[in-house]
Design brief:
The structure holds 2 protein chains of 2 kinds. Chain A is elongated and about 150 Å long. Chain A contains 6 helices and no strands. By secondary structure, chain A is mainly α. By secondary structure, chain B is mainly alpha-helical. The radius of gyration of chain B is 17 Å and the shape is globular. In chain B, 33% of the residues are buried.
Chain lengths: 145, 168
């Protein structure tokens, strides 16, 4: 048995043809899979924001769930602080609005007083430092007494 | 951009059918794997975009899917090949009685080979691939492909010697 002849003999055997009815079924299945995959990808893309919101909500729920009363109390305190801050801020603004500006006579008097204080003679000079006399002079003074 | 399934089918389905039929020796399994392959390409059309040689890539996919199918059916796999050989024809039946007898004997002999040897012998003899191309398609070393081919041919020659000498 010649090896080449044997292999050539095998190669000559024709393979069966694919059944013709498979074509439409297989192509339909493939196209259906492609379309469903396409739809699924579109839905995933559209629901990304929803997914993010859901994740955030889930995280918050996990954080708050262990002590809901404590978190609710803390929120109420913050609301009260904000309300007080708002009301006080409004009152101080009202007081500022109600204040009357100083009269022109008072302003003139203030300006004159300020000018007077800057124009005083030797107002800016510092007093001369006190220098103690030499130690020998001080001895004479003690002997004299 | 939708995948051109009709072109893929026209160009490759016959070769994939023959390869899968030789691996599984079962019409229903061949159809299942072939459909699974096209569905996989439909779901992941990006698989084929970077591929230079579609045929080789599809053969590789088909081989992997067929091996997966056989592993899933491992419990009934012991006599699977022999059972299939008795029930499934992988060659177009010849009108000549001697040739038909040789085809039947060849089908039975192929069924007795390990699946991996069958894959190599099919790609070498009926797809005309080189050992390097077979190695690339089946993700094995070229030397492994060559040795599997040699073992398979030796077994076939031994098995078919009587009928071959008789009808030569």
């Amino acid at each position: 048995m010649n090896p080449d002849d044997f292999e050539k003999r095998l190669q000559r055997q024709p393979m069966r043809n694919i059944p013709s009815e498979w074509c439409s079924e297989i192509l339909a299945a493939a196209q259906q899979a492609e379309q469903s995959q396409h739809r699924q990808r579109n839905m995933q893309h559209g629901s990304r924001f929803t997914h993010l919101f859901s994740t955030l909500n889930h995280q918050l729920a996990a954080l708050l769930w262990p002590s809901p009363k404590a978190w609710a109390g803390l929120a109420a305190i913050w609301i009260a602080i904000l309300a007080i801050n708002h009301s006080v801020g409004g009152a101080s603004q009202q007081i500022a609005d109600n204040l009357t500006p100083p009269s022109p006579q008072a302003m003139l008097a203030l300006q004159q007083q300020a000018r007077f204080s800057t124009e005083r003679p030797n107002a800016s000079e510092e007093p001369a430092p006190v220098v103690p006399p030499p130690r020998s002079d001080r001895r004479d003074e003690t002997e004299a007494t | 951009m939708p995948t051109d399934f009709e072109r893929l089918y026209d160009e490759h389905a016959q070769a994939l059918f023959a390869f899968l039929l030789n691996l599984t020796h079962n019409d229903a399994d061949t159809r299942d794997v072939l459909q699974e392959l096209f569905v996989k390409v439909g779901r992941q059309p990006e698989l084929l975009r970077p591929v230079r040689d579609e045929r080789k890539y599809l053969i590789r996919l088909a081989h992997n899917l067929a091996i997966d199918l056989m592993r899933r059916r491992e419990t009934r796999q012991k006599n699977y090949a022999q059972f299939a050989a008795d029930t499934c024809a992988i060659f177009a039946p010849s009108a000549e009685p001697d040739e038909l007898a040789f085809q039947n004997a060849l089908t039975a002999a192929l069924a007795e080979l390990p699946v991996e040897q069958r894959a190599v012998i099919h790609l070498k003899l009926w797809e005309g691939l080189t050992f390097e191309q077979i190695a690339e398609a089946l993700d094995i070393h070229a030397n492994t492909a060559a040795s599997r081919h040699r073992y398979a041919i030796d077994k076939l020659r031994e098995r078919l010697r009587p009928i071959y000498d008789e009808i030569k």
